[in-house]
VanZ-like domain-containing protein
Amino acid sequence: MAKLSLKYTANTKGIVIYYAWLMFNIMLISIKKLSIIQQHFHQVFTHTSNFIITAILMSAVSLIWLLQGAPYKFVLWLGMVAIVLNFVVELFIPVLNTPDIIDAVYGTVGVLITLLVMLHFKTVGLQNREQ
């Protein structure tokens, strides 16, 4: 099995940034299930699954890449691919999915916010790994 080679480690700020973003998405999952939220904000929380799934997947892959020392432009490319795939799945693949353009928009917002979070993580949350 290949060993994961990390060029950087996350400092305290990086850990806080990453886990705060992760916990925010987990909180959205939890809030989405509350009956009072479903009654009053049904339209908003109907589409949050795409936001959450896209944000968590983007965050996980971006974290690994940034710790390995990949340039941020790789994260940007991943974001662009995720946006395109959101629209492709929502518009052209009806298997296990009800086509809905609003879902793709929510997924796109998830990508854009994740890109900002991971840029902040890269800027203040990384330190060189001590050998």
